[in-house]
Amino acid sequence: MAAGAIGSPAILLRSKVPDPYQRVGKRTFLHPSVMSGALFEHVVASHQGAPQSVYSDHFVWQNGSEGACGYKLEVPPVHP
């Protein structure tokens, strides 16, 4: 299955594959990411400077730590 973090569970759910433990499409622990690259006219020293990273856990717990688990948005640390 190569339909991505959202597409694969969606296809499996629509295909009605056996799911005796009711796990398909729930609590997916994948890190979908996109990489981009570019050519610049000048040298870019990306290894210099302070690493930058950001995340938001606003949607992790819907009703505190006792509620259903949601999701966290996260960007891996990169240099400027």
Word description of this protein:
The protein has 80 residues and is an alpha+beta fold. The chain contains one helix and two strands, in the order αββ. Strands 1-2 form a two-stranded antiparallel sheet.
Structural class estimated from helices and strands: alpha+beta
Shape: flat
State the distance separating the first and last CA atoms: 35 Å
Major beta sheet, specifics?
2 strands, antiparallel
Q: Numbering strands along the chain, what is their spatial order in the largest sheet?
A: 1-2
Number of helices: 1
Number of strands: 2
Strand content: 5-15%
Rg for CA atoms: 18 Å
Helix content: 10-25%
The SSE order reads: HEE
Quote the average pLDDT.
Answer: 79
Low-pLDDT residue spans: none
Labels describing this entry:
two-stranded antiparallel ribbon, 80 residues, single chain, alpha+beta, 15% helix, 1 helix
Give a brief outline of the structure.
The protein has 1 helix and 2 strands, in the order H-E-E. With 80 residues, it is an alpha+beta fold.
Topology:
Layout: H1 4-15, E1 52-56, E2 73-78
